[in-house]
Amino acid sequence: MMAIFRSLGATFEMIKWEHSVFALPFALTGATLAARGLPSAAQLLWIVVAMISARSAAMAFNRLADAAIDAANPRTRTRALPAGSLTPRFVTLFVAVSSAIFMFAAFQLNRLAFALSPLALAIILLYSYTKRFTRWSHIVLGLALGIAPAAAWIGVQGSLDARILLLTMAVTFWVAGFDVLYSCQDYEFDSQTGLHSVPRHFGVASALRFARAFHLIMLVLLVLLARSFALGPLAYFGIATVAALLVYEHSLVSAHDLSKLNAAFFTMNGVISVVFFVFVAADVLVRR
Question: What is the CATH code for 19-78+86-286?
Answer without folding.
Answer: 1.10.357.140
